[in-house]
Amino acid sequence: MSKKTVVVGLSGGVDSSVAALLLKQQGWNVVGLFMKNWEDDDTEEYCSSRQDLIDVMSVADRIGIDVEVVNFAAEYRERVFAEFLREYEAGRTPNPDILCNSEIKFKAFLDHAMQLGADRIATGHYAGVREFNGEYQLLKAEDGTKDQSYFLYRLNQAQLSKTLFPLADIYKREVRKMAEAEGLHVAAKKDSTGICFIGERPFKDFLARYLPPKKGEIRRLDDGKVLGEHDGLMFHTMGQRKGLHIGGLKEKGQAGGGDHDAWFVVGKDMEKNVLYVAQGHDHPALLQSDLVAEQLSWVSGRAPHTHWVYTAKPRYRTADQPCEVDSVDAATCKINFAEAQWALTPGQSVVLYESRVCLGGGVIR
User: Fold this and answer.
1) What whole-number distance in Å separates Cα of residue 206 and Cα of residue 46?
2) How far apart are CA 17 and CA 59, in angstroms?
3) Is 47 a catalytic residue?
4) How many domains are there within the chain?
5) How far is it, in rounded angstroms, from Cα 197 to Cα 40?
6) More confident site: 154 or 41
7) Which of 31, 136, 187, 274 qualifies as a cystine partner to 180, CB 3.0-4.6 A?
């Protein structure tokens, strides 16, 4: 019987390299695929794609697999980047990694791999997949500090049925040790951050090249007093503290925070181009005990039960928050939290969990 073929998305990082290594050790016929998705200003300064490809080739040579290079720049621009810009233009704060996973890594890449005759695809994501009662479940990774299920909540049954996550039960420190033991030179390579496939760059300058910034007033929420000027609403997000340049404007005797309490972004008026701020980390305008999500996506294809206790992540870097689904239909889902949440941000995703199982989620309205 011929070996089954798995196409592994290789990025040049340690995670995808070890994912490929593990699958090879498990007896799969492994093919590496390197995706080139950004071409606008692919310079050495920001985009590391040239170095990443060199690293991919070196790893592939070391573990003995073939690599194909594909260019999904057109798909990325159309399906991910255009939406990213639309969201910023509407005053929201999108999460490009989520779009990137659902549209590129598990759509364009998956389709391409199937055309190559693959049985499965695999990535170096820290997440798990299992079949349970005839249904595929998306699971949190064993390494909770690295778990990436939040970014994968839009995956559906068809996508999960074809996907392997070799790092599901392995801790990051073990991944680096495995790479080192195997002589992979990427063992100590720094994890990539920044926008999915675009890399780390001065974000404000980058965004301003695509969306013309429009200056406007910064006003105090409590009384509407003008405190300063913003460079463009798209550069600001809920709960933002840095970069407002209005420190020390507190008047004596003013209600709210203390004399030197920091200012935080608490809202935007898109029509009037006004940025609203308030003083103090725990200003009531920053605390909310419920939210409405739209653009819903449920892993099982079914909406969760209402009035059951779940946990949710209203942003990636928060601990799971106890909540219940108040109401859900085809278009929207209302979630009530046990405790008020800080700086819920329109455009970010809220992702629902039942223990280790990721149920899906939606975009905060």
Assistant:
1) 11
2) 7
3) no
4) 3
5) 11
6) 154
7) 187
Domain range for 338: 285-364
- Tell me which of 281, 306, 335 is where a domain ends: 281
Domain end position, chosen among 203, 225, 250:
203
Give the mean pLDDT of 71-94. 94
Catalytic residue among 47, 196, 333, 358: 196
DSSP characters over 212-246: ----EEEEETTT--EEEEES-GGG--TT--TT---
Whether pLDDT at 354 is above 70: yes
* Residue 200: pLDDT over 50: yes
Q: What is the pLDDT of residue 90?
A: 94
Q: Give the tokens for residue 261.
A: 């309490």
Whether the per-residue pLDDT at 42 is higher than 80: the answer is no
Catalytic residue, from 47, 100, 323, 333: name it. Answer: 100
100 is catalytic: yes
| Terminal C-alpha separation, the chain | 52
Q: Is residue 208 part of a domain?
A: no
The per-type count for the chain, helices as H runs and strands as E runs, is: 9, 17
Does 103 lie in the same domain as 173? yes
Asked if 67 and 195 sit in the same domain, the reply is yes
Together in a domain, 159 and 266: no
Q: What is the pLDDT of residue 1?
A: 44
